[in-house]
Amino acid sequence: MLRIAAALLFTAAGALIGIQFSEQLKSRRGLCREIGTMLRRSAVLIRSTGADVYRLSRELRSCGFGELSFIEKLPERYSSGEDFHELWRKAANEQELGGEERDIILRFGDILGTSDIEGQLSSIAVLESEIECLERQRTEEYRQKSRLYRAAGTLFGVMLGILII
């Protein structure tokens, strides 16, 4: 009886591990969506109000981007001797992000406030197209691999359970 309970526990653990890997894929897709939303909102703010980096930082904080927690660490006001771009880079690097997502966020931070409004908007448009492409890629990964991860996790759990019995 104890072996059957252990076998069921291993099966459940395997299934949970598979679900966890599947959820990681889903989370990466959601992160791309949030980055895209951040880019679009930033472009609107820059276009409509000519927002500087600190106003943009305040506005982005008020939007409540859950998966982009680094935004909460950005300064809302200028302090003597600080470099906004360095603070952006430091905050973004502290958050765990995928390589391509991190690259887009870092490049976005580098372009903020470094040119006129039209220059910033054109650079943001390039980043928007890149994140849309990356989101499609993440969606396809999720579609292809999520079911596989869940099934493989359950299968390995069942196999371990059978070995115990």
Can you give the helix content as a percent range?
over 70%
Uncertain runs are: none
| N-end to C-end Cα span | 10 Å
β-strand number: 0
Structural class: mainly alpha
Shape: elongated
Strand content: under 5%
> How many helices does DSSP assign?
5
Sequence of secondary-structure elements = HHHHH
| Main sheet attributes: strand count, strand direction, barrel closure | none
Our Rg estimate from Cα atoms comes to 21 Å
Mean of the pLDDT scores?
Answer: 87
Overview in brief:
It is built from five helices and no strands.
Q: Can you give a write-up of this model?
A:
This protein has five helices and no strands. The chain has helices at residues 2-49, 53-63, 84-94, 99-111, 117-164. It starts with a helix and ends with a helix.
Secondary structure elements and pairings:
Blueprint: H1 2-49, H2 53-63, H3 84-94, H4 99-111, H5 117-164
